[in-house]
Amino acid sequence: xxxxxxxxxxxxxxxxxxxxxxxxxxxxxxxxxWGGDRxxxxxxxxxxxxxxxxxxxxxxxxxxxxxxxxxxxxxxxxFLAEEVAARKRAxxxxxxxxxxxxxxxxxxxxxxxxxxxxxxxxxx
Length: 124
Fold this sequence. Notes:
Layout: E1 7-12, E2 17-25, E3 28-36, E4 43-51, E5 59-67, H1 74-88, E6 92-99, H2 105-120
Parallel strand pairs: 3-6
Antiparallel strand pairs: 1-2, 2-3, 4-5, 4-6
Helix pairs in contact: 1-2
């Protein structure tokens, strides 16, 4: 089985930072995402690419999600898993959690935007 070198990225935010580690396992990918003041596992997303139901030849993704009760990490983990699965046409698992005590709606947007920026720059 082919195992490539891990890619590790960090995105500094105005109030914290986000970390991402991506590994290739054969033709598949595993992404770990963490940050804030209490990194944890809050969610795991498994994304599988498939032909779009539109019939136009584009790629869509079907995802399965496991959330730890009370955690809100699905948005960022799902985005990463689905983005990479569609782009690489590969099975992707993204596991992670970001927690920051007293986080504001503006800071949540900053986290989401930071994850999107990291995904765009993820050269795997």
